[in-house]
Specification:
The protein has one domain. It is built from seven helices and two strands, in the order αββαααααα. α4 runs parallel beside α7. The relative contact order is 0.09.
Length: 150
């Protein structure tokens, strides 16, 4: 009985944390109107937030695992891409291109990897063109961040 009470308390605490995130996290809408998607995105946002210490310490595989344990599909790739993009932006803003260049390069690589992997397989030539243009825009945005102009 004690274990179920503990789980119940943990569930309520997680719910409070998820609600504290508000409508969005890292630019990702957490209130789409689809309860299953909203629940998944909130759990991913909480996982991404808990992964930040690993990211900042350069433990990228551990950070990825914290998020991927929640979801192994496109939604986790979107969250990871947003998380690494945000951390890249903040690291560049803190001057880490000079003080931690390898770390900043690794953040860029992770952000690029996850953002590019977040696109589904296109079903039509039009979708393929749209996804290619969006991937190009992602590359340009990350290059600008890395250069300090984004």
């Amino acid at each position: 009985m004690k274990r179920s009470i503990s789980r119940s308390r943990q569930g309520r605490e997680e719910m409070k944390e998820a609600q504290a995130l508000g409508r969005g996290y890292l630019g990702i809408d957490l209130e789409t109107g689809s309860p299953p998607l909203d629940s998944l995105r909130r759990r991913l946002a909480l996982a991404a937030r808990s992964a930040l210490p690993d990211v900042r310490a350069g433990r990228f595989d551990a950070a990825d695992t914290r998020v991927r344990v929640v979801d192994q599909d496109i939604q986790s790739a979107v969250m990871l891409g947003a998380m690494y993009t945000n951390e890249l932006r903040e690291a560049v803003g803190r001057g880490e291109r000079e003080s931690r260049p390898a770390h900043v390069a690794a953040l860029h690589e992770r952000a690029l990897r996850w953002r590019l992997s977040a696109y589904p397989e296109p079903h039509t030539a039009h979708e393929g063109d749209d996804y290619a243009a969006s991937r190009d825009a992602d590359r340009a945005e990350l290059a600008a961040l890395l250069a300090g102009s984004g």
